[in-house]
Predict the 3D structure of the following.
Amino acid sequence: PYPDETKSTIRFLETPATIWGAESVLVDEISRCKPEHQNRLFSLVHERRIQGIPLEKLRYRWAAMNPCSSDQGGSEDYMGSEPLDPALADRFSVIVEVGDWDGLSDEDRKLVADPSGEGAMSDDSGHLAADLATWQKQFEQQLPECPVQVIDYVCAVVTVLGDAGIRLSPRRARLMTRTLLAARIIAGELEFESVRTLLCYSIPHQAWGEAPDIARVSAAHQTAWDAAFLKGERKWVHMFHMERDLAKKARQLLQHCPSPDAGSLAVEQLLANEPKERAAAFALAAFPAAAAGKLPVGAEGVNDLGRLAQELLTVTGEITWQERMGGNNHLRSPEMSRLSSVLVKLKGARQERACQLFYWCLVNELVLKDPVALEEQFQRCVRVFARVGAK
């Protein structure tokens, strides 16, 4: 930078390496950039600005990095390649891991090894450039009214990944939405596997040295895909499971279940996938209505609720717990003091129902994270089912 003739503003000297008129920029070996210099790239990547000045022609921003040296088991091949600042990595729309030699086909290995390709420019007679111009126009037209399914998918997957310990920023959610919209325009429609691949490429954690659990990512993708793209009964079953409040689940089952088959499937999956204490609470609350034929579930759903509810209904009497401490036998439950503090505040039928649930949890050695919240949801669930005349 240097002052202009009037010394009132700043100009910048231009060299063959300056990017003021560039349409694309490639930052090579970005992982060897020191943290204090990485900060200068933030606005370039995300805002297409340098020193606060917009780069009007700039469209594409790429960077290349080697695996972080900490990921190489002490190898000297990539010494000096450090994890990116998470804030910088989060500004790139996609992060693609390029396959190594072992992942290449025989044909691709020959192409890599062939020296005749060195410096060669591809030429498709302008087809790609023409396609890009068309896609870019469609993208700009659809951006103000992005398809609701794309937005629903991104909202669901970011939420589910966060619950699984893989946090994505609000900035990342918007970048992912743009990426999926672009993919939808190019491919014509979004497919399950292609969206899963794009999701994996949209998670920046690997660039800062924290590769996410692929199994968790795949599970989050399945959940989000069901939320956004399923239709009919399968859509209802998915929305039933997305609801976290047991009483609201009960209302969904009673008021909106499309068929007994869907109700049975929802009950089966709830009992299999919810934490044991929540599944038990729902079964104990729902079984009287199910046995009376008041629920929109088939015989299999009634039987599933009954098997678990009967376990709770047969837990009666005084419960003791034998634990050896310091050479002496003490009859007490490690959880009893916590649960008793909840039970002592209850009265009548509410206390009796809570005792059935909590005693079953004690017998099954379950440690409840929040017994107060569980008891409150359980009681509200009981009241929902009681409205259909089952006691």
The longest helix spans residues 170-187.
